[in-house]
Amino acid sequence: MHTVIVFLVLFSLINCITGTFVCNSDGMFENVNDPNTFWHCAHGINYLKHCPTTLVWSQETQQCIWNTNPIVIVTESSSSSSSSPVTTTSTETVPITEPIANGLPPQCSTYTSITDATRRTNNTNMNAETDHSFFSSTPVWVRFEGAAGTRLADYSVPYNRCGSEGAGWLKHPTEPEVGETINQKACFNWSGMSCIWPEKIPQTNCGDFFVYALVAPRLSHARYCTI
To answer: What pLDDT, in 10s, does the model give residues 88-141?
Structure first.
């Protein structure tokens, strides 16, 4: 009997410390009182977790996302020109346009930068290093910039382009939202076969640029093409 009483007292203390949310199952759940936080339930105990600044919890995607709602700033001013002071209130809507760096996935700050102009789709010189040896079976997060363009080609590139025989391109890509990663289908156009040896390529939207997790093509003479 004493054991049961002690257990109930301890359970009540834990619930007071961690919050009033009741965990019916393990998982992560929205906090209806504060969108910047969420409840993490583990073994029947609730823990209040915080999203990074300016991010809010999305129950649908089970992650902290950008708050796309505008911030409304309220200002007040008083006038003493009459016997009774008059207070006026004005509002200013400030849209959130700049994401914070620590709200993005780590690949948005730890990537390999490629500026090689020979990857462009208009390059017909085939003396560049093949991606079969440039990359490996382990994915590497890559950002294309400068002379290389800014993204992988999103249309079927003719073979014998981009510095090699097999021209790599993304087939029917879906552009991810900021901070989101989507698996794209990379095809290689080789000798008239437009989608030979396809690869699954994760693409992340880092706000101002994209990064791709690239692996070595199975085709020995092939390169990823950029635009």
So the answer is: 444 444 333 334 445 799 999 999 999 999 999 999 998 888 999 999 999 999
DSSP category for residue 23 = -
Q: Whose CA is closest to 213, among 149, 139, 150?
A: 139
Helices (H), 46-86: none
- Is residue 49 within a helix (H) or strand (E), and if so which, with residue range? strand 45-50
* Three-state SS at 148: helix
Other beta carbons less than 10 A from residue 105's beta carbon = 15
37, 51 Cβ separation under 8 angstroms: yes
What's the CA gap between 114 and 126, in Å, rounded? 18
Are 9 and 38 contacting, i.e. CB atoms less than 8 angstroms apart?
no
Element (H, E) at 12: helix 2-18
Joined together, the tokens standing for residue 137 give 């079976």
Angle at 55 between CA 54 and CA 58, to 5 degrees: 150
Cβ atoms of 227 and 121 closer than 8 Å: yes
Query: Could you tell me the pTM of the whole model?
Result: 0.56
Q: Outline where the chain has alpha helix (H).
A: 2-18, 131-134
